[in-house]
């Protein structure tokens, strides 16, 4: 039985302070000498980057749609087996989800993982009403272990005192601390897809230490740790597969400030399938490393239009290698990079020009939420009728897309590229708006590495002393 101490950080709604609290707790517990394993409920990439920076280990996602119950349990136990405490950040409101009964909500995850919940409540503009809110949350699901509350953005001592007295009198819930309104230079900045990724601007990491200190000063960490130890035992399951260290192919993975969206499980699945992963930067490297295929994940290439365009040498090489049959798998931002150009309002930047369309940025999301895809038989490395459970979140759309474009998937749920289709096929390229998780696309890594082996292509980087020097750290 697995019994790692754990807590789930939840809130009544979005933007209540879940990420700030979870990140600060990771930092504070790490400072105390505990091995902290962070998790993020849902498909989000950005919050996990902040949690990873705070804890010093890779944050893992836990998502019912993409992973399913068994894989959630496997991922949780595999990642937390050596941890002293697991900090799990919920998403949306505590009871929010697709299922009317809440089985896929943060509360549903708490039940599934037998974890106590700590609620963070945004105190802005309320005092006694917080007691009514908490009473309702406790009564809505009496079986849920809401073990305590943290008051966030408290305006002062009088405000805090009135809230504490109201909650103690009417609810009796354990108050674990109160956080003041954070100074502007500590607040986390948002834009169209959420927080700015810490990997995009490493200077943002300095905020984590300040937030950690704020958590230490204002919260009862000993009681929170004690609450985590009340989590119930979980049944043992088979661990996630790991690499045996042997590899016969190399895959170049685009990783820099523009391309940051990768699930750690996807990288590990490729390694387990016999690939060595070699990082390269579309922003900074002028040549590809010596590889047999490319994996270009999502991110925010639109924020780096001029830098990506100015690196014409690498763009031209990628296009040439694609024309010669190099296998490439690209997601969202990767798809945008492989297009002719990215157009954003009055600005545009030339991209790789391997795909027969440009991409236009939009003010509103063109695709948002979970996806279910079914292979239509057009792609040689996807089994016909096989399904993939994934998600999309893009403020862009292809323009000037030709009518003879071939697609790999029919979209059973979601938006995709156009006409309920996704996954553009060109030679040995598969590029889509879908973000896959290896747990929701169980044969993806083996299929991709199999294509790479059959293609037998190799990039010669003997004249490149810049790219490919860094193997992705385990």
UniProtKB/TrEMBL annotation:
Residues 250-437 form the CobB/CobQ-like glutamine amidotransferase domain. SUPFAM superfamilies: Class I glutamine amidotransferase-like, P-loop containing nucleoside triphosphate hydrolases. It comes from hydrothermal vent metagenome. Its cofactor is Mg(2+). HAMAP family: CobB_CbiA (MF_00027). InterPro entries: CbiA/CobB_synth (IPR004484), Class_I_gatase-like (IPR029062), CobQ/CobB/MinD/ParA_Nub-bd_dom (IPR002586), GATase_3 (IPR011698), P-loop_NTPase (IPR027417). Keywords: ATP-binding, Glutamine amidotransferase, Ligase, Magnesium, Nucleotide-binding. GO terms for molecular function: ATP binding; cobyrinic acid a,c-diamide synthase activity. This is Protein similar to cobyrinic acid a,c-diamide synthetase clustered with dissimilatory sulfite reductase. It holds the Pfam family GATase_3. Residues 7-191 form the CobQ/CobB/MinD/ParA nucleotide binding domain.
